[in-house]
Design brief:
alpha+beta; 2 domains; four-stranded antiparallel β-sheet; 7 helices
């Protein structure tokens, strides 16, 4: 068992605990770990409850990186909008801690900004994200045939394409674009 010191960044969003840890001091060319812990889970021997007590922010901790991690279980039922909101908040967290992939947050946001989520997600957006969404909203047509013709999609590096749902396009245009109240 090799106990080491780590920098641990936590963001508590009930019931999720988003985390990113890295070596302290950092090890050249070696990244950390980014994930989520749920009730009943643990991070290298630090229980969910202890992580909650640590609270939001940056902490210096010690643990055995070879120690077991358990994700835990999500309590209750999660709606599709709840899942999309959680994914968007996780991508925003990853970006804030420097562990996100370029372009990933905006792609996740375009899929998560459903009519039911647009106002739930907006408080967590940075000025840069708002600006990007405002710019994107300008490209969204006013009618469904026009939007279909424009082909709003997200392309991944794996070669897959995901179409942005029309209801999202309408919500983005209404909330961030020329149609905003």
């Amino acid at each position: 068992m090799a106990i080491r010191q780590f920098t641990l960044i936590l963001e508590l969003i009930d019931p999720d605990i988003f985390y990113f840890w890295n070596y302290d001091p950092p090890v050249k060319n070696v990244g950390g770990s980014l994930d989520v812990i749920l009730p009943g889970g643990s991070l290298h021997g630090i229980s969910y409850d202890k992580l909650q007590l640590l609270g939001n922010g940056t902490h210096t901790v010690q643990f055995d990186e070879a120690g077991r991690c358990r994700r835990g279980l999500r309590p209750g039922v999660e709606t599709a909008d709840d899942r999309l909101l959680r994914q968007a908040r996780f991508e925003l967290f990853a970006e804030r801690v420097g562990a996100g992939m370029f372009g990933q947050p905006i792609c996740t946001l375009l899929l998560a900004l459903t009519p039911g989520n647009v106002q739930r997600i907006s408080p967590f957006l940075s000025a840069t994200h708002i600006e990007q969404l405002q710019e994107y909203a300008q490209s969204i047509g006013t009618t469904k045939p026009k939007r279909d013709e424009e082909g709003h999609s997200i392309f991944s590096s794996s070669g897959t394409t995901q179409r942005i749902p029309d209801e999202n396009l309408e919500a983005i245009r209404k909330y961030f674009g020329p149609d905003k109240a």
